[in-house]
């Protein structure tokens, strides 16, 4: 939770920087609200029946409830909104990889009629700011595509209209499966003509940037398709804005990106990192079969049940760590009136957490370096023969620090031993100790000690501070400590960027 809270705070600060307000929606929605919005993934929705017989479902994401909320509040025609809450999916869990049935999403959406591609560009700028703030500089890619370009490609290749979304869902699996497997699904499972599948394959394996867009705009077959032309025009404008925002170098224009959800109408995107995809199989091992597990069903991969923990399954990566797009028609599905154009992105906090924790454990210091609380001062006492424990005095000092807004603790024993007090402070990573002694208190002073200083440091034993000036002294030293840690973080980031060949 310590790491998770830091991720929440980092994301929320970026949302607020861009002027967002927050809302909340119920965990339950009427089943009819969620039905038909998620394509093939609709099978992952948890359905429930309440005591009155009303059919309900647990929310699958935060986007559809937001669109329903907009439809119910017709006075809200424009809003920048963020929402952090749990969602639910009947998926196969892989706990260590952030794939769960109950997990957090952090959504940011812009609703309202604005000039083309401006809100879309700001969403991607926000995405970049968040992953840079999380310390992922140089270690993530924003994959981007346009539904109209994809529909145009399917159209010129000859995909029947009733198979568009099914084929789109198959194409979206290219980040996890080779083209041969995706082609097999298209032709054998979904009944697509093999010649049409081959035409699609020539397009969807391509990725790049503005150079790929120029190639598509020069393609004579696409030039006759209105959807493709409109999609390419949107992308050209978006690339121009992303260049202005300093985000273009983090973008990969990827024609295999399809996003299986039915409600997307324009630009779509997802964020991937090194933990998003499974490692390549080695030595003829069958992905998805655990070590020592025999293949069954004529040599096919042994099936995993819905209750299996897939943490050890090498065929499972965490997937994308954030994803979203434009959905201009979703609000109109609920209101039956004019649509409210929307664009947004959802950050998968549990997947981000899984990768962040793994990185921390792999780097020097590991997860043990993470402080479990935010206490700034541990109030201690010591003495010789006849030592009373100075309990009330410790309580008085703690009270004064609390009144001054300082995070402080003290031992709940009347006569604690000094080593035990130091051990408690050290376990919590507390940076400062206030040490009370009979002689110092008689002089109206206390000893303020920075914990963890090396031998030979001039303040290794602490400094005497007037008791009535303790609050000001602690505040000043904590501010200096914060500036020192910020400088160290900047130096660490500079070193990481240099090692990755990225100029800050």
TrEMBL record:
One of its GO terms (biological process) is histidyl-tRNA aminoacylation. It catalyses: tRNA(His) + L-histidine + ATP = L-histidyl-tRNA(His) + AMP + diphosphate + H(+). Residues 471-503 form a coiled coil. Its EC number is 6.1.1.21. Keywords: Aminoacyl-tRNA synthetase, ATP-binding, Coiled coil, Cytoplasm, Ligase, Nucleotide-binding, Protein biosynthesis. One of its GO terms (cellular component) is mitochondrion. Pfam families: HGTP_anticodon, tRNA-synt_His. GO terms for molecular function: ATP binding; histidine-tRNA ligase activity; RNA binding. Residues 275-315 are annotated as: Disordered. It is found in: Cytoplasm. L-histidine binds at residues 61-63, 89, 105, 109, 259, 263-264. Transmembrane segments: none annotated. Residues 1-387 form the Aminoacyl-transfer RNA synthetases class-II family profile domain. Belongs to the class-II aminoacyl-tRNA synthetase family. Catalyzes the aminoacylation of histidyl-tRNA in both the cytoplasm and the mitochondrion. This is Histidine--tRNA ligase, mitochondrial.
